[in-house]
Amino acid sequence: MSNTNIAMVGAAGRMGKRITYLISEDPATSLTAAVEGTDSPFLGQDIGELAGCGKLNVDIIDDILKISGSDVAIDFTGAAVTLSNLDKYRQAGVPLVIGSTGFDKNETAAIENLAKTIPVVFAPNMSLGVNLTFKILEMVAGAIGDDFDIEIIEAHHRMKKDAPSGTAMKMAEIIANKLKRNIDRDAVFCRRGLIGERSDKEIGIQTIRGGDIVGEHTAMFCGAGERIEITHKASSRDTFAKGAVTAAKWLKGREAGLYSMFDVLGL
Ligand SMILES: NC(=O)C1=CN([C@@H]2O[C@H](COP(=O)(O)OP(=O)(O)OC[C@H]3O[C@@H](n4cnc5c(N)ncnc54)[C@H](OP(=O)(O)O)[C@@H]3O)[C@@H](O)[C@H]2O)C=CC1
Ligand SMILES: O=C(O)C1=N[C@H](C(=O)O)C[C@H](O)C1
């Protein structure tokens, strides 16, 4: 298998460092650029030393156009930063893996538009387990129809900036599509006070933030006399990081288009 040269955008972040580490351990990948924002205190430092895998001779830079010598770029920065860089990604013309979350409908459309020009893997969760969970949810929602009330609960670390998580929103979207519901109309994000009886169609999406929780998602299907709970718990960020590196290797040399982790994992 030929080597995949990868540029990491958001390299000094929680995910960026773990992805860097896994790239350094994989004989089929090399890190070729490490990008951070202009105000980053890490500019000029060797990313390998920061990520704990020893010197990689790749200094952290703030010029994103320098990704253009790489086979693939991976972006784990957050929605606002990813969006602000879409024109530069188009200009660089490098296949792109986007792990950032927190995009609204219009922002998602902007990424879909970028994928007309370059190949893009765009997925709110790159772990194998979560993507299998998505498949299970689709199957369960299709089988139970409208007879069960649906609630989604997600929990993450105190540093996470967006809510609900991209994964929880994707779970809701999968279930809503299967049941012909509409997230804009049917999602309920918070309840308080004299709210009255629950409606049949609503999909509750609740957020918990605290400590160092890596990422936990539960979809509850609550019926009369029984309840199904489908839970995924991540205990290490490496599960997402491994998926991102797999996606980068898979994306190298593909045609322009929007791809998901289902494409990457063959699910
Ligand atoms: N798809 C998936 O499987 C997963 C997705 N995520 C998502 O990935 C994103 C990042 O998560 P996480 O690593 O925890 O967050 P972090 O805040 O730890 O990392 C983001 C990094 O991007 C940096 N950054 C800020 N501005 C720029 C810029 N202009 N150019 C390049 N880098 C910049 C930040 O620097 P600074 O701190 O100085 O602002 C920071 O180092 C989130 O949206 C999260 O939800 C997370 C885990 C899994
Ligand atoms: O910010 C995180 O940490 C995570 N974000 C992703 C999301 O918003 O779904 C995926 C994972 O749960 C970790």
UniProtKB/TrEMBL annotation:
What compartments host this protein? Answer: Cytoplasm
Active site (record annotation): H156, K160
Catalyzed reactions:
(S)-2,3,4,5-tetrahydrodipicolinate + NADP(+) + H2O = (2S,4S)-4-hydroxy-2,3,4,5-tetrahydrodipicolinate + NADPH + H(+); (S)-2,3,4,5-tetrahydrodipicolinate + NAD(+) + H2O = (2S,4S)-4-hydroxy-2,3,4,5-tetrahydrodipicolinate + NADH + H(+)
Pathway stated in the Swiss-Prot or TrEMBL entry: Amino-acid biosynthesis; L-lysine biosynthesis via DAP pathway; (S)-tetrahydrodipicolinate from L-aspartate: step 4/4
Database matches in Gene3D superfamilies: Dihydrodipicolinate Reductase, domain 2 (3.30.360.10), NAD(P)-binding Rossmann-like Domain (3.40.50.720)
Per UniProt, residues of the Dihydrodipicolinate reductase C-terminal domain are: 129-265
Q: State the EC number(s).
A: 1.17.1.8
Q: Which domain of life is it from?
A: Bacteria
Tell me which PANTHER family the record gives.
4-HYDROXY-TETRAHYDRODIPICOLINATE REDUCTASE 1, CHLOROPLASTIC-RELATED (PTHR20836:SF0), DIHYDRODIPICOLINATE REDUCTASE (PTHR20836)
What is the name listed in the Swiss-Prot or TrEMBL entry for this protein?
4-hydroxy-tetrahydrodipicolinate reductase
